[in-house]
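Re: weekly structure request thread

Next one in the queue (255 aa):
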Amino acid sequence: MVFIYKDGRDLVGYEAVLPNVPGAIRYIASITEKYGLNIVYIEECTVSEGNDLFFIVVDFTDKDVDPEMLLKEFRRNKKYVTSVEMSPSFKNVIFPRYFCVKTLGGLRVILMGFANMKGLLNGLKKQLGEEASSSFIYHLGYGVGRELYDIYSKYTPIEGPEEGVKLLEALTKGASWCELISYSIKGDKIILKLGKLWECEMLRGMADKPTSNYVRGMLVSFFEKVLDKPGGLVAIEKKCIGQGEPYCEFEIKII
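Done, posted below.
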């Protein structure tokens, strides 16, 4: 579950446990629609077999509707709503009371926002210096790429670079790392155009050279596994969002 900024709006959060039956989500939506209220965010978390917790944020801005009254409406139908409570808030922040373990592809994940990642990368640069930190970050990414392949190729066996690119697209898009704009495979080269790449967006338009080290390392080890070329690839970032380009372009090739 995430936290939500009110951002000047009259937002209220609800946490509803719904049985896994047809029509449960529709019931919640029908109540908010009845009062002309918009659901601006909804997230699901499995709490037990047959029951799912939904963190629902409703916009009451300029509406003459009591949030407590909506709570009572939600509670009226036990067929579709097992239980529901209003979420706590602190000043401008709404957050869920229930701690939900997030999973991605069946494995637990944690969210590392820009503040976390920027602090980590900048902290390494400050402590180690530009060159040493770049190498350290690259090898962190290198280890991640290898693990990604080893874990997820068990569920989705990969045959050849094209299937490797497709798996990479699913993993990176699902984890909100970046979006694959396009790719090409030419002989011993794989060229990837990646948009909204988190590592480079932190320095959008402010860098004087390509800024990806973590993702570049991840790409190298991932495709070393795909192509069965341990220690035999290099990735060059030809274009970088950090330098003001609309996307990052990586050339991965056999050395």
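Residues 112-254 form a domain with the Muramoyl-pentapeptide Carboxypeptidase; domain 2 fold (CATH 3.30.1380.20). The chain has a mean pLDDT of 93.
Next request, please.
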